[in-house]
Design a protein that fits this description.
By secondary structure, this protein is an alpha+beta fold. It has a single domain, classed as Alpha-Beta Plaits. The chain has a 4-stranded antiparallel sheet with strand order 2-3-1-4. The radius of gyration is 14 Å and the shape is globular. 37% of the residues lie in helices and 29% in strands. The longest helix has 17 residues. InterPro entries: ABM_dom, Dimeric_a/b-barrel.
Amino acid sequence: MPKISKDASVQTVITTFEMTPGTCQDLLEALTDAYANFISKQPGFVAAGLHVNDAQTRIANYSQWERREDFLAMLRTPEMRERNRKINELCKSFEPVMYDVAETFD
């Protein structure tokens, strides 16, 4: 489970996916499989979460990595490149963006 903290020394990546309600479940299954069988086993992976909006037109993915380089190395693997090609076919767009936690509130 991701732990969001301003003092954490992790790389945060938030990826948003835009799709139609007709492909939402297929995309969610592809992402779930990618995390369960590949991404979560990569060096530097800390935690992740998948979020779906009510209209099933967007999925937001929050992931944490020990280092920025770990995330980038995972993206460059042949398996993830192939998975991303298939994921791209299921959505209109997706964009991973690296963030630093600026503040948290309880």
